[in-house]
Amino acid sequence: QVQLVESGGGLVQTGGSLRLSCAASGRTFSPYAMGWFRQAPGKERESVARIYWIGGSTYYADSVKGRFTISRDNAKNTVYLQMLSLKPEDTAVYYCNARLLGSDYWGQGTQVTVSS
């Protein structure tokens, strides 16, 4: 079993920044990939960023390219999402995801609210 615990959400003004963290625990952890998804009210959950554990290659949604950076600390089994130049449309619940042995694991979500 894998547990993912997110932290770092909050309320920020347009143009501000936040850093989300997601710590994984529960078993020997060597995922295929970890990433961040978000879900705004009335919208479907969407992929924001992903990092592949071996090699460290990354993927970003077009809407966040150049503003968000995903990174990982293998020793701490932790993935981060640095968010800069935040916009009101970034407001959502952000979920950490880990893909391991064909299964998806999710954190509980952390709220990010960007005020205009």
Description:
It is built from no helices and eleven strands. It has 116 residues and is mostly beta strands. The mean pLDDT is 94.
Put the structure in a nutshell.
With 116 residues, the chain is mostly beta strands. The protein is built from no helices and eleven strands. It starts with a strand and ends with a strand.
Mind sketching the topology for me?
Layout: E1 3-7, E2 10-13, E3 18-25, E4 33-39, E5 46-52, E6 58-60, E7 68-73, E8 78-83, E9 92-100, E10 103-106, E11 110-115
Parallel strand pairs: 2-11
Antiparallel strand pairs: 1-3, 3-8, 4-5, 4-9, 5-6, 7-8, 9-10, 9-11
Number of strands: 11
- Broad structural category: mainly beta
| Count of alpha and pi helical runs | 0
| Gyration radius from CA atoms, angstroms | 13 Å
Q: Proportion of β residues?
A: over 45%
Question: Can you give the helix content as a percent range?
Answer: under 10%
**For the report, how would you describe the main beta sheet?**
7 strands, mixed
Order of helices and strands: EEEEEEEEEEE
Low-confidence stretches: none
